[in-house]
Design goal:
Rossmann fold, globular
Length: 292
């Protein structure tokens, strides 16, 4: 890996997606049709959007020329690198699948060598996007250290759902980095034992749906760590997959599946919101009619 100072800013049927959302389904059968239509509307432009975005520098406000970008779900993408480094493979691996799944990508720049500042940076970016695009329009995908940051966002419900690939869910017991970088690793990141516990996703609430993808042969983040994390929270879904810490690099379909998982949640949320708006409008029209 190279040292860096910054980076640039869908799967199952409708029933399984309802389970992901805690069993909240639509009250009327017509809503299922609405959900399917919304899913098609969300995903159908993906190939064309992928071609458009290929030449763009970043997602979001510019969105590489994405058409209707402010009407589509926004996705924070957070790279890994032990909180020390950039990961030059992350954007090439994730941009195409994110756009094809209907998201507008935002690659987050966060401080390196400073864990508390990194946490605050991704929180601030999530809040900014929620304020600009809507409280239920922002999602997150992160890998490794970035997965830890994505898990913290879903824990605070600063995103509507998140995916974390091999996140360090328990910073307090993570031993690998001191063997790799030396005993001063945590001091260099600006956290002591109490700070590591405070910023561990497993020690905090998980309020929004979170998908954790964990390689069975991971020797950087122990699989048992995320098995414990998923067992603790009903909102956390665990996919145990083949391979190690960088399994997504040799199995990129995992990223595609994760994006589709997020897209299905986004579709259901959009459908629920539109149904609620239509119901409110019907009630207002009925009330106005009754007053005549």
């Amino acid at each position: 890996m190279r040292r860096a100072t910054a980076t640039s800013a869908r799967c199952g049927r409708a029933g399984s997606a309802r389970r992901v959302l805690g069993g909240r389904g639509f009250a009327r059968p017509a809503a299922a049709l609405l959900s399917a239509a919304l899913l098609l509307a969300l995903l159908a432009p993906g190939v064309a959007l992928a071609r458009e975005v290929a030449g763009g520098e970043n997602g979001g406000e510019g969105a590489g020329g994405l058409v209707g970008s402010t009407e589509r779900p926004q996705l924070l993408l957070i790279h890994g690198g032990s909180f020390l480094y950039d990961d030059p493979t992350f954007e090439p691996l994730t941009r195409g699948p994110a756009v094809a799944a209907g998201f507008v990508p935002h690659y987050v720049t966060y401080p390196l060598d400073n864990l508390p500042a990194a946490v605050e940076r991704v929180r601030a970016e999530a809040r900014r996007l929620r304020q600009k695009f809507g409280l239920d329009r922002v999602y997150a995908y992160g890998s490794s250290a970035g997965g830890t940051l994505a898990a913290l966002l879903s824990g605070q419900e600063l995103v509507s759902a998140g995916v974390a690939k091999a996140p360090v869910s328990d910073l307090a017991t993570w031993e690998w980095p001191t063997g790799k970088y030396g005993p001063e690793y945590w001091t260099a990141l600006g956290v002591g034992e109490a700070g590591r516990l405070r910023l561990s996703p497993t020690a905090r609430p998980e309020r929004a749906p979170l998908l954790v993808i964990q390689g069975r042969a991971d020797n950087v983040v122990p699989p048992s760590m995320n098995e414990t994390f998923a067992a603790r929270f009903s909102r956390v879904k665990l996919w145990m997959v083949a391979g190690g810490h960088t399994t997504d690099r040799v199995r990129p379909f995992l990223i595609t599946r994760a994006m589709h998982w997020l897209a299905q949640i986004a579709t259901l949320k959009m459908g629920a919101k539109r149904e609620a708006e239509a119901e409110t409008k019907d009630k207002a029209e009925a009330r106005a009619e009754g007053e005549r």
